[in-house]
Amino acid sequence: MFLAGIILLATISAILCYIIFRNNTHLINIPKPPCSILLGHILHFKDSTKILQILTNYTIQYGGLLRIYMPPTKPSVLITDSEVLQVLLTSNKEVAKAKDYNFCKPWMGSGLLTSEVDKWKCHRRILTPCFGRLSLLKNFTDVFDSFGNILIQKLGAKVNNKDIDIFPLIKMYSLDVLFETSMGLSVNAQEDIEGEYVKSLERMCEIVVNRLKTPYKRFNFIYRFTEDYRKQTEAIKIIDSFFYNIIKTKRQSDGTKKSNQNVLETTFLDLLLKIYEDDEFTMTDVKDEVNTFLFGGHDTTATGIAFTLYALARHPKIQEKVIEEQLHIFGKLNKNSPSYEDLQNMKYLEIVIYEALRLYPPIPITGRRIINDVHLGNGVILPKNLNVCLFIYGCHHNPKYFPEPEKFKPERFEGNNILPYTFLPFSSGPRNCIGKKFAILQMKSCISKIVRNFDLQPSDPEYILELVPRMTLAARNGIRLSIKKRTSD
């Protein structure tokens, strides 16, 4: 028994020595901030509201490439260097997602966000025609405006409230828009803000983040015995049921199965069902892409809108310039239905949105897995199977690329002064955001309508925004402001 104990102790010691050796020699040519030998940088990130700032400070201090160690995995590399970002983002080979995206698969399956390279390339080619077509975007402006009118009514009821968390209202507006434009269905999300589907989406986001930051939950065998796994099972059941109800409703609607229908002019869901009927997709493929799109399409856009409104509330002179542009375009502020051309002419509002997306990028960090050794020069190699983090927030807040990075200065985006691959709210290259044009158009429509109806002001009492990196950028204490009814001319 004594001998067996000695052997067990020796084995454990050998394993620990190997782990310590591996984690301190892996990627030795890339700098690593000081950390615990066994716990790595975990203790640096106990306070979620400080993670982004700590990592940003590291990238400024140690440069655009640095090692971060979060046990039990090997150290990964955090990247803000624009030249390295360009190499990775423009490559048609380095398009694999990081292994951590597997935590989304119980929910999103093998959709565009999580699928392996071959499947992603096939689905991306098939789905791209759904997005960015001028004829579709022009049709969508009426949908943006219609649901914007409901949002204005909801906000109008809060005019006398000096402390509003704007994000939940914007999120429901965005969900309404997404269902109507991409699914051809109305869900009345703004009237049912406490719906089980929305709660389940939020619960899944929390669960994925918990798995990312809790070492033992990274192991599937252990995770299955946790409370989070039970919550995940319940949430996915609700999300899947919601999907099949969508399919049932869609198939019962008139005109869904017209044989002579032009696929390019249909909704996203129509296209998916047509592909399914042609035996190119399974119903699981359809479900995975719908779940991926419903999450990615509404949450990121809502985040961008809410943070832009927050920034305008805190910068009255910039808000005034936005209003001047609106008056120049419309002649009066109470015009209700801007055309596609009107939205395209909102050039100043566009750079205001870009600056808000720089300061508050909806996706602060994204991950890739290196498929082939990437040689960066000076003896630095990103080896095959390495997980790298493209730190978009850190890149946007680096004074090397954006002087006075914490200041809200839309004029940065006047002309062509932005260094390539430093402004990445929609990523870039082959795996960029498929719905960029749609998102910008929706953001313009929503923000234009709100500022023409309300004067945005800081919340009273003022508060300190506490940013946390979840699946999208979030504020732990809400995105808060106050509004006053704007006097119409």
UniProtKB/TrEMBL annotation:
The name this protein goes by in its record: Cytochrome P450
Membrane topology: Peripheral membrane protein
InterPro entries according to UniProt: Cyt_P450, Cyt_P450_CS, Cyt_P450_E_grp-I, Cyt_P450_sf, Cytochrome_P450_Monoox
Protein residues bound to heme: 433
Localization (cell): Endoplasmic reticulum membrane; Microsome membrane
Cofactor(s) recorded in Swiss-Prot or TrEMBL: heme
Keyword Heme on entry: yes
GO molecular function: heme binding; iron ion binding; monooxygenase activity; oxidoreductase activity, acting on paired donors, with incorporation or reduction of molecular oxygen
Keywords, alphabetical: Endoplasmic reticulum, Heme, Iron, Metal-binding, Microsome, Monooxygenase, Oxidoreductase
A Pfam family it matches: p450
Family of the protein in this entry: Belongs to the cytochrome P450 family.
Domain of life per record: Eukaryota
Gene Ontology cellular component annotations, sorted alphabetically: endoplasmic reticulum membrane
